[in-house]
Structure to design on (234 residues):
């Protein structure tokens, strides 16, 4: 029988699985003649495939290949698990960012609504131009008193700053060069007719128009004052 030796096969039997030993061959340079019946010795005391009955050799090889396949499958599972864990980590981070952004957006919207509600409440407490009895003339103090009652309290200082610079609270102030008129120096002055036909003589009408103008164009008198400071006009 020819000697057959293998390394790494597991020997399958009805009672046990034995690790096959290392390949053993004739020493290099030996002068001994080979034959079909020479004796093989395993270097590590293992079992040679030649020592296994021919009917079980296929089973041994199959068992070894199965072990290798199982090891490869286990390694693939580890890689897949690590990949899944990394994807889960990334998704969790993305979810956290999205949650934070949603919370910040909700908070900003809440604050904006609170500001609007506060502004609406403030304006509901102010008086309209028609609430004041008309006079033939008005002093600066009287005009300022009207403005305080018409402009929301938290916006009055900004409103006052603009009027100070534009007309010094003279409701009949006229710019000889441009024709701008009134407390707000509306240009042309006739545009204030949208607030009332008495725009030339009634400071309350001018205040109403000016407040509406600042709100519609700049969001508020303070928004208008911020723009005025940067540009010296509004």
């Amino acid at each position: 029988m020819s000697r057959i030796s293998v390394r790494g096969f597991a020997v399958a039997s009805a009672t046990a699985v034995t690790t096959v030993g290392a390949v053993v061959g004739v020493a290099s340079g030996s002068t001994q003649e080979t034959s079909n019946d020479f004796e093989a010795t395993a270097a590590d005391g293992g079992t040679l495939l030649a020592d296994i009955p021919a009917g079980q050799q296929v089973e041994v090889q199959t068992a070894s290949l199965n072990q290798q396949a199982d090891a490869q499958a286990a390694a693939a599972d580890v890689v897949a698990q690590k990949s899944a864990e990394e994807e889960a980590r990334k998704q969790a981070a993305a979810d956290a960012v999205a949650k934070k952004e949603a919370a910040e957006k909700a908070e900003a919207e809440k604050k904006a609504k609170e500001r609007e509600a506060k502004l609406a409440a403030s304006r509901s407490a102010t008086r309209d131009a028609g609430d004041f009895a008309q006079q033939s003339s008005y002093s600066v103090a009287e005009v300022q008193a009207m403005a305080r009652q018409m402009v929301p309290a938290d916006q009055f200082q900004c409103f006052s700053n603009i009027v100070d610079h534009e007309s010094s609270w003279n409701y009949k102030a006229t710019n000889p060069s441009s024709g701008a008129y009134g407390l707000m120096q509306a240009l042309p002055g006739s545009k204030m007719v949208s607030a009332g036909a008495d725009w030339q003589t009634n400071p309350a009408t001018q205040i109403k128009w000016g407040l509406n103008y600042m709100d519609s164009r700049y969001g508020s008198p303070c928004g208008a004052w911020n723009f005025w400071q940067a540009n010296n006009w509004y």
In short: The longest strand covers residues 10-12. The beta strands are 10-12, 17-19.
